[in-house]
Specification:
Elements: E1 2-5, E2 14-17, E3 28-37, H1 40-46, E4 64-67, E5 74-77, E6 88-92, E7 96-98, H2 105-125, E8 134-138, H3 143-154, E9 159-164, H4 167-175, E10 181-184, H5 188-198, E11 203-206, H6 210-219, E12 229-233, H7 247-252, E13 255-259, H8 267-281, E14 290-294, H9 298-301, H10 305-309, E15 311-315
Parallel strand pairs: 8-9, 8-11, 9-10, 11-12, 12-13, 14-15
Antiparallel strand pairs: 1-2, 3-4, 3-6, 3-15, 4-5, 5-7
Helix pairs in contact: 2-3, 2-8, 5-6
Length: about 325
């Protein structure tokens, strides 16, 4: 069986050949792996920068899509349920979610993790939202930010405001009806004025963090007589792990601050959300920045500009 493993943290996984898997244990099923995406989590595991990666050799994958060849049923394989950078995987049946017939395995592999980021933020870290709530998505033009749009709509958002650096991309999202308005993450003074002009926002889903988040939180207008603005950090696209936040901002605004990732919510609670997450991901088209490659090419494509800026999906059986 062919598979890929990291032999040393910080290096690309190597494509290897080894013995076939043992027979599935009780409660397991053998799947032919169709696709496994290289999420940011996967990259962190390969670099030894995630708590789940403690030793090598390591399959750094997190989740993926496989098919039970005996029945023809295609499944989403939940996070860490099985090593997915391999031709076959023995997975716990309880950790599998059936995927509707006709869904694109590559799209589901690529999008389930991004969909889960905003889905879990809205179900596990945000509370008491009223129908028609407003949401500001910082980093809306990235894969996760774009999937936050249909997730927010599903949960009843009435107004979605997108924020990113690329104004042309933001204008396109307004033109196709995905978002209702936008602000540009650029000049600090302009961003401050644009944020203040928004008025009250019920939820902020932040994939950017850093200076942009600091400016938005400082300029945000909240309503002392109404519901708070609930800010949730999900990512750090800006690659800045801290922000400057004046104490006066917290004392003068009706604002709550939270993060969303394992550790801030229970894995039991998150697990209950997986079927809904997969069902939504299965309805979404494959974005243009999702790039499939054969698993045999993993060492060549792993540390490339394309891998850093787009979302790789590795296919154990090639294209």
């Amino acid at each position: 069986m062919h598979y890929a493993q990291v032999q040393a943290f910080g290096q690309a996984p190597q494509y290897l050949e080894g013995p076939d898997l043992p027979e599935p244990a009780a409660g397991q099923v053998r799947l032919k792996v169709l696709a496994s995406a290289v999420h940011r989590l996967v990259q962190m595991r390969a670099n030894g920068k995630h708590f789940s990666a403690t030793s090598v050799p390591l399959d750094p994958s997190s989740d993926g899509v496989g098919i039970d060849e005996a029945t023809g049923q295609v499944y989403y394989v939940s996070m860490f349920a099985a090593p997915m950078l391999a031709e076959y995987a023995n997975a716990d049946i309880k950790r599998l979610v059936p995927i509707p017939a006709g869904a694109d395995p590559i799209a589901v592999a690529a999008l389930t993790n991004p969909v889960s980021s905003s889905w879990l933020a809205l179900t596990e870290r945000v509370h008491d939202l009223k129908p028609g709530f407003s949401v500001l998505v910082l980093g809306v033009t990235g894969t996760s930010g774009r999937t936050a749009i249909p997730v927010a709509r599903k949960f009843g958002a009435g107004t979605i405001i997108g924020a990113a650096r690329n104004e042309k991309a933001l204008q396109a999202l307004v033109a196709d009806g995905s978002i209702d308005k936008y602000i540009v993450l650029g000049d600090a003074d302009a961003l401050s004025n644009a944020t203040a002009a928004l008025g009250h926002v019920d939820v902020i889903l932040d994939y950017v963090y850093g200076a942009a988040a600091s400016t938005v939180l400082s300029a945000l207008q909240t309503n002392a007589d109404g519901p708070p603005t609930q800010y949730v950090n999900i990512g750090t696209i800006a690659q800045e792990e801290s922000i400057s936040l004046n104490a006066q901002t917290l004392r003068a605004k009706n604002l709550t601050l939270a993060g969303s990732a394992p550790g801030s919510y229970s894995l039991t609670g998150a697990g209950k959300q997986v079927p809904g997450i997969v069902a939504l991901a299965a309805t979404l088209p494959k974005p243009a920045d999702v790039v499939p490659y054969a698993l045999s090419e993993v060492a060549r494509v792993w540390d490339t500009d394309e891998a850093r800026k787009k979302r790789l999906v590795l296919l154990p059986w090639g294209q």
